[in-house]
Amino acid sequence: xxxxxxxxxxxxxxxxxxxxxxxxxxxxxxxxxxxxxxxxxxxxxxxxxxxxxxxxxxxxxxxxxxxxxxxxxxxxxxxxxxxxxxxxxxxxxxxxxxxxxxxxxxxxxxxxxxxxxxxxxxxxxxxxxxxxxxxxxxxxxxxxxxxxxxxxxxxxxxxxxxxxxxxxxxxxxxxxxxxxxxxxxxxxxxxxxxxxxxxxxxxxxxxxxxxxxxxxxxxxxxxxxxxxxxxxxxxxxxxxxxxxxxxxxxxxxxxxxxxxxxxxxxxxxxxxxxxxxxxxxxxxxxxxxxxxxxxxxxxxxxxxxxxxxxxxxxxxxxxxxxxxxxxxxxxxxxxxxxxxxxxxxxxxxxxxxxxxxxxxxxxxxxxxxxxxxxxxxxxxxxx
Length: 383
Description:
The protein has one domain (94-382): ABC transporter involved in vitamin B12 uptake, BtuC, CATH 1.10.3470. 72% of the residues lie in helices and 0% in strands. The chain has helices spanning 24-33, 37-65, 73-83, 97-132, 144-157, 164-183, 190-215, 218-229, 237-255, 258-264, 268-273, 278-300, 306-318, 327-351, 360-382. It is globular.
């Protein structure tokens, strides 16, 4: 007699087994063996954010105190609190007019400008690298620094240096318009945008060199050189207002674009499948990044390597087991790291060679170049 056919498995236990997919056993072992990766990454990012926030506050306080006039952090804090109307509340004695002027009129606005510019450039660099899907992208990819340089150099040789921030910003906007005009034909693809930015940078750079060669002499040449190399020596409260306002109005919304940038990391097709209007969002984010960069460059000159190196350094700092943070964490962390970095680079630029002052862009290149090389070497070994 034929043996009976094996009974079919119950409906609740019958399931399709997908090769490579975790089964119940592996899933439970993973839950017992380690924390979920996303939760661990968020916790690590939160700790790093708290540490960087405290480090930024301490850096601002110490950077103001460092310099030829020997000030203590307590004196710096007393001056700031008195100007905020809180000195009497804490029973603090006011500083002498000379020492108070050094803190409030000279060092504090310069340090705050450095922090705002560093945070903004690092933020813009992070956005550009995600949008272009290119690890070598930086805030100046669209030709903005060349356009700003042309505007700044033009007003310096004309003797109207008071209009330098406005001219630099308008030059950056002109370069942005030219780049987007060149790149817009193909739906603003990353490759066309990069090529358009390179072309505009070459053209505006040549025009800047022509203006310098034809018209710059004496003091104007030195002023042009300082601006082209990046300098915060002339930063006062108007520069704080320009950089701070731009960071709040444009940079703050960029901080909330992390989810969109994560989608762009998988390509335009994947982002479109997730419901993101790719072309429109890319135009919007590129425009916002360019406006923020133009405002920052207008008060600081073209300071390199901040927007290029800091996003990579933060990924290296937060990553564990080769997994970097998502952009929701990477954007604010890069901004904090950029602020700290530029505060100390500017402090070194004004103190290391006292009484002479080094343009901060030289120091960021001296430090940023080797750091970027080390990051590349480490990634090559990991890969």
